[in-house]
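[job 4417] fold queue: 2 targets
>>> target A
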Amino acid sequence: MSIQYEPPLADSFGVADSFPKDFGYGEEEEEGDIEDNPTPSDSKPRILLMGLRRSGKSSIQKVVFHKMSPNETLFLESTNKIYKDDISSSSFVNFQIWDFPGQVDFFDPTFDYEMIFRGTGALIFVIDAQDDYVEALGRLHLTVSRAYRVNPEINFEVFIHKVDGLSDDHKIETQRDIHQRANDDLADASLEKLHLSFYLTSIYDHSIFEAFSKVVQKLLPQLPTLENLLNIFISNSGIEKAFLFDVVSKIYIATDSSPVDMQSYELCCDMIDVVIDVSCIYGLKEDGTGSAYDKESMAIIRLNNTTVLYLKEVTKFLALVCILREESFERKGLIDYNFHCFRKAIHEVFEVGVSTSRTSTQPAGTPLMKTVALNGTPRSTV
């Protein structure tokens, strides 16, 4: 495997200078008790992490969004308060995570569940697959039924967690059993319209990043436009698969319409780690200043099976990672030109969303973008 760095095209980054200064991560906020922060930002989607004690909620949050090593999570203390964490990766990954302690009592009169569920975009319920999950299923049913009656627009996600300790057959059987029992409980309560999505997850592999990617994508009104742009880009460039990654969390906020192969996703995640690690060593200035990822970031990795991985910077915190064959990469000039058009279109989608959100009084969740062709020409509004 070889890594090759090349200078960018002369005009590849002409749009970047027009980007708002506040694009990307802001100052990291300290986690705090909600009682100390009673007025969260209503402009950001809210993701709730719920489940029984020691099910792995805090570990998931730390590994995905704070780059904590999975082994370090063994020393995390059990959560005993509701914590809020602002995630502001980019214009597309911009939300709050509320981590709930396992002992939350929905029938406690001091618990204002209506206020919490009313502003929620997704509710993730974590079930420990290595434990007896009968009690967890009871709490799952109580939680989602109460939340659904307050806000039927919530996306309900179930993470069947800690599956790294189970055999493949046991994983499938556990998922089937939990899926069957959970939906039977909903049917008995006449809640057939409530849809649950199930994911097998572990913090020791890429499954937790894959699952969180699917959750976050449901909260992005720009998703159809991004997928359309990726489809146009790969079809005109001879690329087999492309992911639009948030570099910091390794969540992919969009991909093309072809099925996602877990091995391909892991390859792309590993490439991001390699690029950032090498840039931290060799890409900074002699005095230590600079950034490990900037508008000149680009890398090519050639595998020994005639596959090429190609990474290009899209925005300050977004990267396009492509998988293609060596014979397709011989047309690198065409690929770079198409990427330049793709990158310009992504910037236009962002700029339209920002300018519209500042002046619009539309309800939350309304798509705030226009569709653009690969060359940046505006099309009809989505």
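>>> target B
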Amino acid sequence: MADTEQARASAPEAAAAAAAVLDALNATDANGTEALNATAKFVASPEGTALAYGSLVFMALLPIFFGALRSVHCSKSKNASDMPETITSRDAARFPIIASCTLFGLYLFFKVFSQEYINLLLSVYFFGLGVLALSHTMSPLMSRIFPDSFSNKQFQLLFTQGSEETKEEIVNYEFDTKNLVCLLISTVVGVWYLLKKHWIANNLSLCLVTSQHWIANNLFGLAFALNGVELLHLNNVSTGCILLGGLFVYDVFWVFGTNVMVTVARSFEAPIKLVFPQDLLERGLDASNFAMLGLGDIVIPGIFIALLLRFDVSLKKNSRTYFYSSFLAYIFGLGLTIFVMHTFKHAQPALLYLVPACVGFPVVVALIRGELTELFRYEETPPEDTDVKEDSETEKKDQ
């Protein structure tokens, strides 16, 4: 079901656990409209339903495709701010446990404290995360839009501790004018997202049209998903199988085994899902009956698909066989989720269908091509380790 992060999580465990919890938090929206992997409670026109789910599938493919491409460049980056977080097999094995504890903790939290104040804190928190994530997403595009004649000034934000010999850097962030423009645009979207909250508009005595909040929500959601796919890296295919397998069990248990997931989802208000109105054709931008897809259903399979793209690149055969096979498998799995949901009219954990498809298709391709052993032997070296290795080799040459 679904979920994502700042421009990047501070640690692999927190990042993937967040993505897994995002998968758990999207059974319904605040109005009670069922999510993609849940039963619809209203009758939508066939055209509106097709448009809504088709749009969700298209939006889900965007961060996976472009996030995977950007992950290739990210893995080769020497810039510390662009370094990916590498998920090991040990991290992957702990993710379902961490995600389950976090989910149940949120369930208890909403039972004890006022939902209004919790969502106020969440809105402010995701405002900051969303602005940073959207700004990071827009940066490459802005670099292409601005002409070469544009005066792009460089800035540096530096905080240090101590003095002279004991001076230690706390924050050292470099940015330029283009980054500031991205940050400004992202802040405008963030303010739009905050003002969509009816209780905020009422408290500020503002006459605002808040019905189009889903657009701002989707902009933040796409940014979170793309950043997650780009900056969260699995170190090998075995780790990916452990992660997907564990979250497969996690998703099935919390959907079919308890009501915790639905309870938290009904209380949790944050841009952790992509939404599209099923009554758009009838009501236009004032539509209110939404179909939803959680970000976890994008990010979790997406980081595995991105790994297969990097494996394709490592083969140096100028082909993207494993990437395209897993990409098509994702489309098949997501389509199967929608089909089963509408056929049986019952909540469906999307990872139940996405995990076997995204893992099974590439494995079958590897068997046909005789590259199964090579696929599972592929190991990614974190950029930090690469730098250390290069430094040691340089020292040996100097000696």
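[job 4417] complete. Note on B: The chain is about 65% helix and 10% strand.
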